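input
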Amino acid sequence: MGEIAVKHGFYGTDGGDPAAPAYSGSSECLIIADADPGELWVFNILTGKNNASAIWAAQKIPDNHVTVLGNAFSIRRMNLSDSENFLYSPGISDLALEMGWWTPSPQDPPEIFDFFGAYGWDVYTPTTSAAICSYVNMSSEFLRNVLSYYAGRRMWRVFSLLSPEEGAKLDPNTGHLPDTQNPYPVSVSAAPGSVTLQMVMDTHRDHYEGTPYDLTKGMAAGPHGNPNRGWPTLGIAGQWERAIGMFRTCWSFLLEAKPKWSVTWFGWDAAHGTAYLPLFAASSDRGPESFHSISGHMSKFSHEVAFWAFNFVNQYQDLNFQLINADVRKRAHQIEKDAQRLVEMWSAEADKIGVDEAARKCLTQRSNAFAQKTVGEWWDFAYSLMAKYGHYVVTHNESTNGELVHGAGSQEFPIWWLSSPEVGFTSWTPSGPYGVLNGGGSDLGSVWTLSSVSPLNALFLGLFSVLSAAVIAYHVGIHQGKRKQDHGAYYLVQP
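output
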């Protein structure tokens, strides 16, 4: 991969005008797995000098380790003399030295090179940060915190979820920037067999539940614990925590590399409202019909398109995320449990067939049929949620007592939310007003105070958190999956 990029050039999708490409945005970070001989590598790459060729680095991850990429380069101190664990492009440090992006430390031997320290975007670069800071009405120091925790918080969270013992040693406030002192490691150890496929699936669904950064808590989550944050108004300095699970995810997947029958576990739309379905890498034909149907698209709803089944559930559960998502996750877990059992059965069946082409055809037929059947059942599940949770009650059956209005498990508004004067329930008067900003004022730039609400409900205002869904761009080294808008100043940072 690296040799091809050096020979033919690497040009990132967010590198600006192809006629005069910029370094910012022309970068990418990937994880590469090989089941035989059982290796895992992190691969970082950016465009080279004069925006031609490429500069790249790869680091081998030790056995029984967990690694994570959060829209940022993660390769730090490289030992350029250790060819077993580090691979890189010729003259890897030349451009960084020429541009003044990196200076060797006198304490380090000459073979040590800090890749992210050299090629990660410098927040304080005047030509890039000034325009963005002005555009979104924030200081460079504020921008620094936004960028630092956009990647860093998720890195900490993944390590904490998949390797709790090692994650407990890490500070969630360390952040992740090129000049971060004592940065997070590229990987942490995990006991053999301790990380399950289901754990990784659920990590994709995480919103920092149970931590000080829990997006299901506080006024921003509404009365029913919704972690999804929509687009903010431009020009207001502020940000939401950047979770792993995001409402704007179009699809996510897990690659389970195996010596023979590798599996892609594919989930449409946001991970917290999907079920991951198995598709074999050795497929002999196209995927399920609903996975490639063109009867619908992003602006045209269609029952024939699998995406819409999962998007429909994701949209509907926002009515009461706390209650409805519990049903959604329960159903998804059952589907994924059944699928994992079936994958083992199908793989054993393919092994018995022996003939490679026939075996691959068998696996394709089995997985496609299961996926298509599950999509149909997911539509039925979606309609059952509408019946159960419609009209802000919980309907279990048609009996006299089949509809739950009050009590545990109902859709009642919680007391802490109703008690807030901003809501207007307890501040009602015959003449109004029915809900005002606490502290007065109606302009969008005013700050809301939550003195009447419990401290737990104000958590979303604390700490330096991360970029909202539509604020700014990650630049070189803080990139993966952005889409550029508004002439280079405004980005949608994609998961």
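quick obs: The first strand starts at residue 27 and ends at 34.
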